[in-house]
Automatic annotation (TrEMBL):
It holds the Pfam family FAA_hydrolase. One of its GO terms (molecular function) is metal ion binding. PANTHER family: ACYLPYRUVASE, FUMARYLACETOACETATE HYDROLASE FAMILY PROTEIN (AFU_ORTHOLOGUE AFUA_1G02370)-RELATED. This is Fumarylacetoacetate hydrolase. Signal peptide: none annotated. Keywords: Hydrolase, Metal-binding. Residues 73-280 form the Fumarylacetoacetase-like C-terminal domain. The lineage of its organism: Bacteria, Bacillati, Actinomycetota, Actinomycetes, Propionibacteriales.
């Protein structure tokens, strides 16, 4: 299945278009794109046993985040070796570095990105969507708790993120529009059907057609199953929670000299088997980092 949020309504995207879930299920499931993960097993059983009606063509610009209101947002830092190295980290972490991105930063897969400063960076990321509660889960069983995979762009305002003396990762990565997600959540069976390995997908990002990031998700230091194991050992992962798993090398802050997003540039982020995000950079309200007093 390819699950989407079309103008605020839960849909399944098929070859013919979008199928409204509430209408197709005759009210068995509602229209809320977030609520479906709380009934994940029932939803999957219905979807796989139902002959869906033909889909309706739609405009991509009407797609919102397929998980617009996750209960918890986990983001993992320095989870690709080459990205850790370009960030000046030579001793790789023995535990996943975890922060969050606040929900108000979440937006849909296509649209404008307001740049509050001249130091906004890009980070292409694979996103895991939790389908069933995970608590004290082993890595061997972790995939059983995953609803599907999607894409995020972890935009980062580096000045705010790295303000001394104490870095502020979460707030520096949570300006409005800094977490576009989508275009769809792809269930794990879809990768197998397409002949793809869910643990080894190409991921990348380009600026105005110039490729700046390209990697594979099998290069993660902490794989998806290990992340679920480590996180669920601390707290329960709930249906609809999301995990941004980290970014490969090629971010602007790691370039010499550093390169950041400019007004007018288009950022395209993609992952094999899922799709792409597109953001056009526009001028935002100026922001300054306050000095400590």
């Amino acid at each position: 299945m390819r699950i989407a949020n079309l103008s605020g309504r839960l849909v399944l995207v098929t070859e013919s278009g979008a199928v409204d879930v509430e209408e197709a299920s005759q009210g068995q499931f509602g229209s809320d794109p977030t609520a479906i993960y709380r009934r994940w097993d029932d939803f999957v059983a219905w979807a796989w046993s139902t002959d869906l009606p033909p889909g309706t063509p739609f405009d991509d610009k009407d797609l919102g985040s397929p998980v617009p209101e996750p209960g918890q947002v986990f983001a993992i830092g320095l989870n690709y070796k080459e990205h850790a190295l370009e960030s000046g980290i030579t001793d790789f972490p023995v535990e996943p570095p975890v922060f969050t991105k606040f929900r108000s930063s979440i937006t849909g897969p296509y649209g404008e990105l307001e740049l509050p400063t001249a130091t906004v960076d890009w980070e292409a990321e694979l996103v895991v969507v939790i389908g069933t509660e995970a608590r004290f889960v082993s890595a061997e069983n972790a995939w059983d708790h995953v609803a599907g995979l999607t894409i995020a762009q972890d935009f980062s305002e580096r000045t705010r993120q790295l303000v001394p003396p104490v870095p502020q990762f979460s707030i520096g990565k949570s300006f409005p529009g800094f977490t576009p997600i989508g275009p769809v959540v792809v269930t794990l069976d879809e990768f197998e059907k397409a002949g793809l390995d869910r643990a080894d997908l190409e991921i990348g990002c380009s600026l105005d057609g110039e490729q700046v990031q390209k990697g594979r998700t099998n290069d993660l230091i902490f794989s998806v199953p290990v992340l679920i194991e480590r996180l669920s050992a601390v707290l329960p992962l709930q249906p609809g929670d999301i995990i941004l798993t980290g970014t490969p090398s090629g971010v602007g802050g790691g370039m010499k000299p550093p390169r950041f997003l400019q007004v007018g540039e288009e950022v395209v982020t993609w992952i094999e088997g899922i799709g792409e995000l597109r953001q056009k950079c526009v001028a935002g309200r100026p922001h300054t980092t306050a000095s400590a007093s």
